Amino acid sequence: MVALPAVDLGLMANHLSAHEGVINKLKAYRETVTNHQLRDIISLQENVMQAHVWVMLALINPEYSNKVEVPPLNIYDFKHKSNGGSNETGNDNKWIALEVRHTAKNMSSTNYNSALMMQKPNVKTAHIEMALQQLQLQKIYDEFIESIGWKFVPHASVEEQVNTFLHFQHLL
Questions:
Q1: Of 47, 53, 57, 51, which Cα lies nearest the Cα of 27?
Q2: For residue 126, what is the DSSP state?
Q3: 3-state DSSP assignment of residue 66
Q4: DSSP state, residue 170
């Protein structure tokens, strides 16, 4: 039996509670959306989150002695399509897509920030890998949202960019 540092155990206990809520939210969203591509991405995220639960429970279990690794995304039966516009694009689909993208972003940030505080190297590494997977999911959502035409990014004027450059040029 190997005891975990208290900080590692506490952070993972917190993550498991969050995962329970997120997984249930993803299930509800998956049943609500009418866009097949969005449903597939949500299913992928749900499967990834379930795998992350398994990883954390294995890391917590003092009786589990096998090596614990985060399964790579390519093990999931997911074929990313870039043409999101071919399916229904209703309002529920839009807000759900924006929400689950934010969820992936938030989970990535939480996993990475927690990894910075974790003590045990394999626990830290697993959470960095989980953060990277959530980042990949965020990118998949980004591509979907952009393909549908729901992405909006305001741009600064060239004049504002030049003024900002001139203001900070002295740092060089």
A1: 47
A2: H
A3: coil
A4: G
| CB-neighbour burial class of residue 136 (10 A; exposed 0-12, middle 13-18, buried 19+) | middle
pTM reported for the whole predicted model = 0.88
Q: Count CB atoms within 10 A of the CB of residue 58.
A: 15
- Is residue 127 within 8 Å of residue 111, measured between CB atoms? yes
The position carrying tokens 């960095």 is: 128
What does the pLDDT look like over 104-151, one tens digit per residue?
A: 999 999 999 999 999 999 999 999 999 999 999 999 999 999 999 999
The one-letter amino acid at 49: M
What residue type is assigned to position 102 of the chain? H
- Joined together, the tokens standing for residue 25 give 């939210």
Please tell me what DSSP assigns to residue 72.
Answer: P
Q: How far apart are CA 116 and CA 162, in angstroms?
A: 36
